[in-house]
Every structure is written in structure tokens, then in C-alpha cells.
């Protein structure tokens, strides 16, 4: 029985998504609940798993394609049934001898077909031919990437419909094209008859025998770096090469694998070394981050106020109770729980900072949901730690750890990202001494924590070396006045410098 593999129902306010990574290819046998494909939205990465044991029969949307909720993107033959690609392969094996005889007789090439621009995403009027990966007459394999087509939102890949070659390229690199426009002519079977094409086909089979097992993004990276797939050790399923494998190979063996540079004339004006550039399209998440940050700068009256805090009391407290805290709660006592507790108390005292603007109204929130900025491989996200006023120190530490792990693994759900009244970002973990954080709309303020650094400070007329940290509060001056912003930051400072206040509510 054939089962349709569909895009999950997309979260509210998310119009479409992109195919990020296919973990299987047509003809692969899969097990129930095995991850088939990662689908990336503006906020989260969704995994689509196999509904039953079977074989992938057909993949309808390649990596980079824009898809909609519940759109069919692949087909699964349930119960281990052979995929169409397999049956075609077996038929070709049965008829291999006649086919070889036909080739030897110089039979005419197979049928010709048009290579067209895919259907473009909604609201995208046209696209640009970014890169042709093959030349006219060059032999290619079925599903090999022929050309990259760049739109405002995604890069689309057009693959070969069968084994064969391009007989004509109609739209060159840089040309503007529209949906379903013919950009090349494709001939199935042998290439245009030139012996050079035949030898190219043979060398391709020898050098890249596993190209069908490579994802389009991996093939592109290998081509950009001039690395042969056979020289890279794959760590994916069935030895499949991943982008991480290629990057690891380049770091460890870049000099050995890099082709020797041509001799340069002995001229002092010429630059030395390998001067290369790499151009990659922005991911949907990175574009969303960029748009939101730009919107925050343009639509808010943002101002930043600074203070500094002596972290010695908290450091002493952590040192005294770290071991017993970890034994009792099963998690280490970090700085973030103190920051969250102090911020929660300050939000109670200054409700304007916990409010937001909605049109001509000010919305005061009587609950405390704090966004924690988390750096992930895909970019910065701000998952929500909810009802912080009801959480103890251990509950806060566990909640932050869970959100950080989800962010790292791309497992954050929409419920983890929706809402939030205030944001805490800690650039100190990367060594930042001072910064002006940007507000996370529609919130009214964000608190930036920074590096803890020993500095000489005047204490009771004497100079002491203390672990100091700068605090930065960026706020929307349309709703928060200077008095409230400074008062809020002083409250956070006092809570951190005397943690007993958190217990006594003073």
C-alpha cells in the first residue's frame, strides 16, 4: 500500500516552510518512526517520521523547496515493497546486454525533454539562475543537481529527470526567470555523441560512485571545496556523508586534499595565500532574526541604561552550597537562576517594564514569562521560561537547561517560543564586557548580562579587587520612563549584591 508523506500542520502564523534535509532517498528501506526529513519554519525545525515500515518510493520535493502545511512531499511503499526506482533498476539489469549492444551500434540518443523552473513560492514573482553545475554534453545521473535557482526566500535545486545530458542551456547564470520557464534541454541516455562526454561519464562513475547517496547541500559543498566524495569518511546512516563530515575533513586535511595552486609570477604586487570566498543563502531562521531585529530598531524608541554589580556575594554563596544543592536537586547551581529571580522581583515592582504596547493601548501582564536568549547552531532563539514567580532556584535551573538542550538539538516547539514579557541575554558566556542589547518585540525591555571581571573598586575608602559585571537594560522609551528603567536596574543590582533580599522580599 502506498502512503503519502505530508508536511505536518504548521504552527499558527507560519505560512510556509522549507525542506531542510532529507535523511533518506528513493529506494531506501525505512522503519516505523524513523526520521525521514527535517522541515524548517521561521521558528522551529519539524521532523517527519515514517508512519510504518516500508520503502521510500518517490521524493516529490527536494531540499530547499518551499512547502505548505499538509502538502504531500514523498510516498512510502508500506511493508518493504520495492520502490519504483528499484524496479526500474532491475529492469535495466535484465535488459543490460541489449542496451549495451544498442550503444555499441551508435543508436540515436533517447527522448528529449525540457528543464523548467519549479513552481515558485507564493508571493515570489521571479527568480535568478544562480549556478549551473553541469555543462552542455556532460553526462549526468538521475536526480543529480543541474542548477541552483535563487528566489527572495529560498534556493531551489533542479535535478536531472533521468540519466543523460544537457543538449542546450537556454538561461545562463544571472538570468531572471519565471515559474515553469524552460531554461535548458535534456536528452535521456547517452550524451551528445562526443567521445569526451563518454570519458567524462566514465570518470564520474569512478570518482563519485556514491553521489546518489549525497544530499544536494553536501554535493554543493564538495564541489565548492574541490573535494572528492571518496576521500571523505561518512558518519551518517550506512556511511552516508554529511555536511559535518565534509567540514571536519576540510579542517583536518585541507592542505592534503587541496589541489596544488598554479605557479604565480614573481610579482610583489600580487597577494599571497589562498584568497577564496564563500557565498551561501541565509536560512529562514536567520532572515527572520534579521527582520525582527531591524523592525525593533525602526519601530521602538529604544534607549539603554547601564549599571554594575558586585558578584562576590553570589559567587561565595554558590561555592558554599553548590555541592549540597546538586546532591538534593540533581542539577548545578548556576548564575542564571539568580538573574531570573532578581528580574522577576524587579518586574513585580515596576509593572511598566512587564507591559507591552498594542496599538494605542498599554497591556499590563500580571504573570511573569521570561525569554532566555539561547545561541544555537541555526541562530539566536528566545524560548520562554514561564511563571518564574512560582519557580524555585532548582526549577529555574532545570527549565533553562531543558530549553538550552532543545535549542541545540532543534527540538523547540512553538509553545516554547510563544509569549514572553521580558528577555534576559547573557553575552558574558562569550566574553562580552559590555553591549547594548536590542529589544525583542513586542516586549518593552531586555536585560544584558556580561563578563564577570576582577576590577579595583573603592570600598569604605580602600581599594579592593572585586568580581564586577556590567548590566545593560535596553527599554522602549514610549512606555518606560527613565525613572522606572533606572529603578528597575538598581533593584536587580541590589538583589544580586545581597541575595538574602530574594528570600526576605525586601
Q: What is the number of E strands? A: 27
Q: Give the overall pLDDT as a whole number.
A: 80
Query: How many separate structural domains?
Result: 3
Characterize the largest beta sheet: strand count, sense, and whether it forms a barrel: 7 strands, mixed
- Per CATH, the architecture of the largest domain is 2-Layer Sandwich
Poorly predicted segments: 81-108, 191-212, 254-263
Structural class: alpha+beta
The CATH class of the largest domain is identified as Alpha Beta
What is CATH's topology name of the largest domain? Chloramphenicol Acetyltransferase
InterPro entries: 2-oxoA_DH_lipoyl-BS, 2-oxoacid_dehydrogenase, 2-oxoacid_DH_actylTfrase, Biotin_lipoyl, CAT-like_dom_sf, E3-bd_dom_sf, PSBD, Single_hybrid_motif
Family: Belongs to the 2-oxoacid dehydrogenase family.
Pathway: Amino-acid degradation; L-lysine degradation via saccharopine pathway; glutaryl-CoA from L-lysine: step 6/6
Domain Lipoyl-binding: 2-77, 112-187
